[in-house]
């Protein structure tokens, strides 16, 4: 056991050295070796034994070593901090020492985050590294948690100012010294305790920033139901605090990603789901439920998301928060962007805002301003953008969770969609100035830009909101809902029930609804824009589910089909993600709709254009197979209709004529089966398996299933690999049974999107998997015995 240190400043220890000191010196009479001290401290930090803290050294020894090693007096300050922070201390001197330590670390952290210099190598022992190595982090954790200790029934108290200093120093150390954040994350009782510090406005931002960093590296997700008085804590937050708290919630309600690619395969997901069923709800699901149980929580998020810039926090409190951001380096990059634009605008407005250097501020804590009551509008806008980013993300995750219907009902009730519609032009999709805000080290088109991130998050929310839910009609205004009714009336078809049931008091107001606004900006988007993917996904989600002729015509009348074809054919889009989203949207837009196929044929009016279109389809069937499926289903329906308009389209449409050819269908079928395997199936490419099944189900309806299987066998032989395709297809269908027969949602989606009963899907798969080699519709009948390989246990591969 190392000897206890002498009292600070007593001079004791000059004649006698502790065992730890002797070891650090390398033995009696050895020369001072500071590097040995640091190596032993590092070893002690890893093992928990030996040298771990400054308190194991004498002040005299540390002072002597400091002269040579330039430790900035940090070990001595830690020694004093330990001596003045015991349980019976009044903490006054303790806070003075913290004030001495803080600037030594904050300057280093500021330089690190703003990239004014490269991070100093560990071998030169920067201040934050020395602070941690001599036990500073553990000591501050102990000081912060003193209020959890009771002495004679009374709990100790430390001031908010002292807590703020401790949190500041801890965060700066986390920023600059590798491994500190992970060590803090392992202290679960400390992480839970940090939430209690958010009850004070003075320490809220510092606490929230530190918690966010800690949770970002924590291996196991924290459970919010373990936080003391969570409901009271959140309910007492003002709107500004709640918006910042959403940064933490983003980490606690999203399922953790282990970074393992295998988890993205359906095999692995199914295995994980089985495991989850035995373990109960995940931590993320528990946390979502905990938040939804807080009275008024979702309502307050909706108000934050739809708040206008003019309704945001006043200038004085905003300036104070900006100063906090300047001190709190988590937001330093954002502030960098804010300050740059502020300075540009101030040159024109004479309303400059000059921030003092770190550590220097006026007595009232506000930065110096030449016009305190004025604030550049772009800074107010950025303020709202940063808040809305976090709030929209939380709402989006809740919309995709187990309580989806509950969240949907509340979001509709609290008029989130009309509120976002009113913000669309002025904030969400506002025009950029020449000095558009970007983060430090990024450019205006970077996906990290706050403006761009807000747009993407907004589009993701719309996608989640519209997907297979009747509330999607809230994206329209009253006039547009009347238009849907008129389309149904003109076509002499029943009006969509969900349209009739829509509460007109909750829909968008103004001249255009949110969906129409989205279509307008979508058509103006540059060819290389990263928004195209998300825009197409959001619009497609409006069409998903049971096919609605009125919905399709509403979009067709606004030129959506022509826009999609222009992007696919005339701009010859190269992005695979954008192409996939456009093909999926085109499929939903055209499915079973004669008018859509007429418009298609009118736009693709030359063989040259049609060949470009086919080239795009055939370049990646994973991307285009949903369109192939929709056209195949439409062809089957049209062929069974007796109608002059339909007959005209069948005789004129190049695309329908192309798909109707058996060689074309067989080519698609062969490639769709060949590009997927059970071990590589994901949520993205499983559609290839379902499209191949659609082709075979329609063949079965026409009693041509044996013909198609025989043609597949011939194609196998022509490739000199007999059995390889049909064995693979057999395994895929076995997996299909395991996957879909236990998932109601997926089976419902298959039925609604194809208009083929799920019982027919199941029957067709069972017929194909029939083990009887005499059956003309069984796969095994077309696999020669020497090449049979159908009993493989793919779950263990």
Automatic annotation (TrEMBL):
InterPro entries: ARM-type_fold (IPR016024), TRPC4AP (IPR022162)
Molecular-function annotations in GO: phosphatase binding; ubiquitin-like ligase-substrate adaptor activity
Coiled coil residues, start to end: none
GO cellular component: Cul4A-RING E3 ubiquitin ligase complex; cytosol
GO biological process, one term: ubiquitin-dependent protein catabolic process via the C-end degron rule pathway
Protein name: Transient receptor potential cation channel subfamily C member 4 associated protein
Domain of life: Eukaryota
Organism whose genome encodes this protein: Cercocebus atys
Organism phylogeny: Eukaryota, Metazoa, Chordata, Craniata, Vertebrata
């Amino acid at each position: 056991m190392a000897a206890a240190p002498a009292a600070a400043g007593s001079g004791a220890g000059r004649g006698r050295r502790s065992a730890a000191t002797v070891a650090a010196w390398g033995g009696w009479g050895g020369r001072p070796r500071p590097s040995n001290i640091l190596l032993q401290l590092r070893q002690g930090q890893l093992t928990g034994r030996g040298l771990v803290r400054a308190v194991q050294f004498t002040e005299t020894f540390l002072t002597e070593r400091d002269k040579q090693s330039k430790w900035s007096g940090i070990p001595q300050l830690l020694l004093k901090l330990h001596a003045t922070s015991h349980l019976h201390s009044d903490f006054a001197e303790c806070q003075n020492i913290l004030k001495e330590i803080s600037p030594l670390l904050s300057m280093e952290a500021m330089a690190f985050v703003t990239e004014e210099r490269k991070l100093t190598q560990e071998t030169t022992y920067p201040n934050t590294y020395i602070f941690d190595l001599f036990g500073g982090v553990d000591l501050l954790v102990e000081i912060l948690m003193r209020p959890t200790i009771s002495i004679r029934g009374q709990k100790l108290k430390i001031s908010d100012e002292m807590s703020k200093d401790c949190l500041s120093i801890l965060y700066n150390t986390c920023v600059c010294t590798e491994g500190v954040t992970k060590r803090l994350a392992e202290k679960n009782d400390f992480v839970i305790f940090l939430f209690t510090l958010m009850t004070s406005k003075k320490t809220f931002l510092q606490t929230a920033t530190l918690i966010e960093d800690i949770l970002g590296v924590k291996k196991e997700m924290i459970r919010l139901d373990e936080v003391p008085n969570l409901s009271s804590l959140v309910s007492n937050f003002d709107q500004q605090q709640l918006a910042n708290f959403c940064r933490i919630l983003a980490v606690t309600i999203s399922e953790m990603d282990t970074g393992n690619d295998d988890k993205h395969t359906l095999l692995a997901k199914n295995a994980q789901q089985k495991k989850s069923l035995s373990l109960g709800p995940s931590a993320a699901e528990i946390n979502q439920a905990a938040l939804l149980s807080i009275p008024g929580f979702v309502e307050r998020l909706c108000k934050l998301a739809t708040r206008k810039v003019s309704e945001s926090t006043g200038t004085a409190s905003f300036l104070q928060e900006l100063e906090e951001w300047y001190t709190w380096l988590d937001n330093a990059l954002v502030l960098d962007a804010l300050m740059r634009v502020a300075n540009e605008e101030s040159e024109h407005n004479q309303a400059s805002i000059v921030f003092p250097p770190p550590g220097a501020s006026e007595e009232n804590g506000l930065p110096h301003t030449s016009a305190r009551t004025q604030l550049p509008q772009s800074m107010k806008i950025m303020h709202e953008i940063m808040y809305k980013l976090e709030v929209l993300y939380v709402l989006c995750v809740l919309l995709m969770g187990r309580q989806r219907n509950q969240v949907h009902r509340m979001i509709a009730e609290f008029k989130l969609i009309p509120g976002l519609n009113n913000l669309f032009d002025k904030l969400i999709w506002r025009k950029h100035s020449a000095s558009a805000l970007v983060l430090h080290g990024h450019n205006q088109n970077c996906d990290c830009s706050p403006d761009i991130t807000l747009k993407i998050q907004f589009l993701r929310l719309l996608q989640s909101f519209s997907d297979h839910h009747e509330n999607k009609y809230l994206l329209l205004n009253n006039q547009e809902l009347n238009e849907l009714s008129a389309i149904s009336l003109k076509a002499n078809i029943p009006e969509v029930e969900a349209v009739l049931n829509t509460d007109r008091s909750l829909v968008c107001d103004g001249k255009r609804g949110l969906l129409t606004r989205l279509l307008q900006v979508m058509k103006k988007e540059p060819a290389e824009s990263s928004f195209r993917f998300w825009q197409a996904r959001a619009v497609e989600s409006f069409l998903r589910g049971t096919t609605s002729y009125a919905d399709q015509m509403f979009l067709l009348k606004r030129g959506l089909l022509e826009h999609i074809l222009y992007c696919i054919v005339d701009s010859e889009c190269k992005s695979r993600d954008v192409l996939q989203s456009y093909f999926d949207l085109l499929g939903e837009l055209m499915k079973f709709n004669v008018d859509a196929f007429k418009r298609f044929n009118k736009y693709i009016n030359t063989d040259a254009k049609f060949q470009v279109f086919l080239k795009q389809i055939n370049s990646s069937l994973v991307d285009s197979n949903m369109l192939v499926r929709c056209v195949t289903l439409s062809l089957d329906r049209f062929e069974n209709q007796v109608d002059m308009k339909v007959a005209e389209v069948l005789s004129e449409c190049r695309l329908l004529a192309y798909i109707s050819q058996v060689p074309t269908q067989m080519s698609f079928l062969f490639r769709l089966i060949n590009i997927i395997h059970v071990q590589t199936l994901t949520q993205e490419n499983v559609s290839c398996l379902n499209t191949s099944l659609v082709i075979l189900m329609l063949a079965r309806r026409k009693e041509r299933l044996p013909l198609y299987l025989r043609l597949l066998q011939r194609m196998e032989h022509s490739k000199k690999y007999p059995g390889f395709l049909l064995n693979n297809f057999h395994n895929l269908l076995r997996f299909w049974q395991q996957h879909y027969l236990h998932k109601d949602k997926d089976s419902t989606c298959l039925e609604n999107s194809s208009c083929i009963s799920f019982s027919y899907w199941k029957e067709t798969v069972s017929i194909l998997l029939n083990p009887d080699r005499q059956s003309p519709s069984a796969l095994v009948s077309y696999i020669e015995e020497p090449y049979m390989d159908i009993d493989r246990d793919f779950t263990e591969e």
